[in-house]
Amino acid sequence: MMPIFTAILIAALLVIITGFFCLTQTRNLLRVIIGVEVAMKGVTLLLAFAGYINGNYDLVQAFIITMIVMEVVVAVVAAGIAVRVYEKNDSLDIRKLTKLQG
Amino acid sequence: MPASLTFATAALIVLPLLAILILNIVNKQAGQKIALNVALVVTVIQMIAVLICGSLLVTGGKGSIDFSVFWDMNANLSASFFTVDFFSLVVLFSIGMVAFISAMVAKRGVNGKELNFTNLLMVILLGMNGIAMVGDFFSLYVFLEITGICSFVMIALYHSKEGLEGAFKYLLMSCVATAFLLISMAFLFMQVGSLRFTDLTIALSGWATGEGDLFVTIAFICFIAGIAIKTGLMPFHSWLPDAYQSAPAAVSVLLGGIVSKVCGVYIIIRVLSSFFENIPEVGIAVGLLAIISICFGAIAAAAQNDFKRILAYSSISQIGYIALGIAAGGPIGFIGAMLHFFNHATFKTTLFVDSAILEESVGSTDIEQMGGLEKQLPVANVTTILSLLSTSGIPPLAGFWSKALIIIAVWQAGFHFTAFLAILASVFTLVYFLRLQRKVFFGPAEEHLAEVKESRGTLAFSAIALSVVTIGVGVLFPLILRFLQAQGLL
Q1: What is the average per-residue pLDDT within B318-347?
Q2: Is residue B112 domain-resident?
Q3: Residues of chain A whose C-beta is under 8 A from some C-beta in B?
Q4: Residue B151 sits at the chain A interface (C-beta within 8 Å)
Q5: Contact: A56, B193; criterion CB under 8 Å
Q6: Domain around B353
Q7: Confidence bin at B71 (pLDDT 50/70/90)
Q8: Does the structure show a pLDDT above 80 at A5?
Q9: Residue B314 to residue B251: CA distance in whole angstroms
Q10: Are B242 and B152 in contact (CB under 8 A)?
Q11: How many domains are contained in chain B?
Q12: Which fold has domain A4-94?
């Protein structure tokens, strides 16, 4: 029987890896953003787990709430850029973002 | 704490917020008109405040000052506060200077978007000031995100195809970098129970005795991966040239001049010199990435045909020198890195201002289309020569001294071959910059550029002022060294 905190640690790392794997597989701008968000959720879980281990619940609560706010702002900016890219290119395919090279 | 000091330190955080408030309370037309002037005033006050802080540090004989702005820092043990020491003052001064120049460039560059630009400039100023002064890892993350988000929006300010592409690439890489940094923070927090730099220093100082702890090792690896992406060191550099090239002129001055340095290499210096100091593996890893970046940046820059892209690869190379100085360790390496930070902010900003002059007068930054602009653009010509000589380390310009200090530190640390490579790459810097100079300014005049004229205004003023700083710091360098010796830093 696996101790509960090892299980949480493995789960958090798996969520992070899933997010990064999504980044490598998808060719769609919105799915890229979703991949990043999934990875960040894993990081949030990891941070909560860190607070659980050393009993610093109040500090870690403040961290996580701040982190969620920052994450939402990043997601909004990313989605805004994706919308503009769609207007310009008529496609969300990242393979069409080839203006800058070299 | 004396009243003048309270004013000076609070000005660094409160003033940008106040400026945003003022600009958005008045109606939009008025805001549009006064926006850039407000930005100029705020940045000038920031530079003055930094000088006041510096003089108080010297007269007070203290190494650093702790302060908080909106709450009492003594109220709670885990309350976070700001810390100002000499190095952060140098950084804060560079931030003020580059933001001032960026606002000057924006006077010609951002038609109709003055208010948007200034709001973003103020927030990014706040974010960078925060990074330069924070005392704990989590606040560092918050300010890092503030700065990052503003730079994404600023790169895509005009919704051009290039701008959107550059902004999205930067955003994506930056998200991955912050994920790594947060993983590192989580593991450190798991181990130590606090994220304040002072607590981490104490907790990790006993670690070097050889007892390998898996969690701390993972934290180091994730920290280096995250910060290398943010800095744009060699294997993680892909976003940097794209972001610099696609940004509007005033924004690329800001990005290339200061943002990527404060977000990346400053944090490396701060963290490495405070709590990863005892772990030689971290220094070796950063040094390795640094020397790869130095060589690769110099070689890749020689193959580019866009003015801003050459500057971007040159930035990768020069940031490598700063990271190398800090990886070499010791007071000489630290001072060298600190001064190269300032010098790099000066000469790279000059070069980006020159690219703004070219963009305004010629209409593009493609160096293949230019030639013989020496007579038509005298200010751009002379300032480009000066700053490229400074970049490649020709005495008596400022860049020579800081590079010399860094290479001495590397040599003293025993890495002779690395020092040799660094000198070789410095010579190569001269190669790619001479190619740039020959293609753009020297040689026979191109027919279609006969009508090009240089505008006498804020752009030319910025380039000249920065060149004066480069020459001044170079000529007065012995005095600066003696001052640092008197302060016990060297």
Answers
A1: 88
A2: no
A3: 16, 19-20, 23, 29, 32, 36, 39-40, 43, 46-47, 49-51, 53-56, 59-60, 63, 66-67, 70, 73-74, 77-78, 81-82, 84-85, 88-89, 97, 99-100, 102
A4: no
A5: yes
A6: 279-490
A7: low
A8: no
A9: 18
A10: no
A11: 1
A12: Helix Hairpins (1.10.287)
- Give me the residue from B138, B167, B179 closest to A39, CB to CB: B179
- CA dihedral of B457, B435, B261, B404, whole degrees rounded to 10: -110
Closest approach of chain A CAs to the CA of B387, in angstroms? 24
Establish if B62 belongs to a structural domain: no
* Residue B395 preceded by cis peptide, ω within 30: no
Mean pLDDT confidence for B158-168? 88
Q: Kindly provide the ipTM of the predicted complex, given to two decimals.
A: 0.94
Is residue B51 situated within a structural domain? no
Task: Name the region of B404 (left: φ>0; alpha: ψ -120 to 50; beta: rest).
Answer: alpha
**Which of B116, B182, B184, B306 to mutate to probe the A interface, most A CBs <10 Å?**
B182
Alpha-carbon distance of B227 to A15, in angstroms, equals 22
The predicted model gives B412-427 an average pLDDT of 87
The pLDDT confidence band at residue B79, using thresholds 50, 70 and 90, is low
Token pair 């403040």: residue: A62
Q: How confident is the model at residue B83 (pLDDT cuts 50, 70, 90)?
A: confident
